[in-house]
Design goal:
The chain is built from 2 helices and 7 strands, in the order αββββαβββ. It is about 15% helix and about 35% strand.
């Protein structure tokens, strides 16, 4: 049986620290060389190769959510200081149909890396693409 991880333990696995353990969806190492992001398992596109920001977000709404603001900031750090690469924490939703979602289970994915290929810091949109490691 696979080990159960808390969300905080997933960040620790990658040596990254979230700003807040209750609402953060991303974290980074003190030197900014490692960034980890939490991604919903069921929201990958193109057979698991691509992950896009939430299509249901309304323009500008993301700026009122501190975890999402931090995520966009950390994706910019990854793009600028870590060759665009991020570690992935895979999250399974308690209920896929509610908003906001909550995490039922999450797992660090050491063999899965994603690269920031698009990031619009004004709109809060992004596209990540799987990198073969």
């Amino acid at each position: 049986m696979p080990r159960q991880y808390s969300h905080t333990e997933c960040f620790e696995f990658f040596g990254t620290v979230p700003r807040n353990t209750r609402w953060s969806w991303s974290g980074r190492s003190a030197d900014g060389k490692d960034v980890s992001v939490t991604l919903w398992q069921d929201r990958f596109d193109e057979k698991g190769r691509v992950y896009r920001s939430w299509k249901t977000d309304r323009p500008g709404e993301w700026k009122s959510r501190p975890g999402f603001v931090e995520l966009i900031e950390n994706l910019a750090v990854a793009r600028d200081d870590a060759n665009g690469l991020v570690h992935v924490i895979l999250a399974q939703a308690r209920d896929k149909d509610v908003s906001p979602r909550s995490i039922a289970r999450c797992f660090p994915q050491p063999k899965l890396k994603m690269r920031v290929v698009e990031l619009d810091e004004d709109e809060g949109t992004f596209v990540l693409e799987r990198v073969d490691v």
